[in-house]
Amino acid sequence: MAVQRIVIENCAIATVDAGDTEYASGHIVVADNRIESVGPGKAPENLENVVRRIDGTGHLATPGLVNTHHHFYQWITRGLATDHNLFDWLVALYPTWARIDEQMAYAAAQGSLAMMARGGVTTAMDHHYVFPKGSGDLSGAIIRAARETGVRFTLARGSMDRSEKDGGLPPDFAVETLEGALAATEATVDEHHDASFDAMTQVAVAPCSPFSVSTELMKQGAELARRKGVRLHTHGSETVEEEQFCKELFGMGPTEYFESTGWLGEDVWMAHCVHMNDSDIAAFARTKTGVAHCPSSNARLAAGIARVPDMLAAGVPVGLGVDGTASNESGELHTELRNALLINRLGAHREAALNARQALRLGTYGGAQVLGRASQVGSLEAGKLADLVLWKLDTLAHASIADPVTALVFGAAAPVTLSLVNGKPVVEDSRLLNVDEDAIARSTRDEAQRLARITARA
User: Do residues 139 and 155 make contact, with C-beta atoms less than 8 angstroms apart?
Assistant: First the structure.
């Protein structure tokens, strides 16, 4: 079958390549699922099999956004425990989360994915670690929702085996056994992980956190991931309380503990990493361990301000994360570009902390690095997969801002005129093409109400 091309012209372009190449008015040619060319001015003449031409006047084209940390199931528990710190929030919500089932997980994944996709996310991930007994095929339901939405997806198959009786936070009925968690994780990798260049679904091994997982699950989880050739993900150094917990339980801080269990390396990324000292950052830089920075969630739970400028200066790979929508009710990643910039300027580096282009890089190429897919997505370059977004910047919200990247990052959330994933349109004129947003809104509301009723009866 002949190659089919989509041509986008007359738009500003931020490629986010190694040189941060930008064009005030340029073109992008997509051939099937790959970017064929990017450059200034009009597209080359006499291109064959052009099935669509798009006039990008008034728009900025960027790589698609890459989300590096999320908990989709929390979509149906938004707006609860709104004035809690992390540990109190977890204790308040674990009894509800421990009663989710396959239907709830599917609806919540649909809601989470829809909200991200309509806001420019082309690669999503979900860290799912709650597997109540008899709840059905939760991993399969989440992956099905991602496939239907049309986004590229990494499922971080989580697990917990340290419950209240062992000194952890989750209720006893909400955790798996060590053997059960490892077996189910391996089965998920075997069934769903695709290692190919243009994979739409990948799986990572992801025990939940040091305070909900045994040391043995951490160690054997790392061994499993490396035997299978997949990535590793967990929460790390999110709060002061977590650091105290690690020192009391293990006699060392979180980073030392992670290193002792095999959890530092270029195949690992951690969520949050708010409370990191100089030696922690140096250890992450030395091992190329990645970080998922979740500024809104960190603020919502009063966790603190991550040292992102220092991490970047040291060479730590850093991407952005929505985090679960029970701690970031907006569920959007494009707003995290702005929040990452603003919140980091409240830290020690003040106005020099981050600029607009660094924030955009966090949300695109940085995220691709963290997920191990920087050779495939995260920048607009010939040969890479055609995951890109066309942002509309000529309306009242942005029209008086001369620089388009500044408009995107500092301004209001920009409408998405077009989002391509693997060369296929997923969003047009701010509407999802593959799923019914209104139907998803109804189903997520219904499942949230059903979960509330079940919890109230328990």
Answer: yes
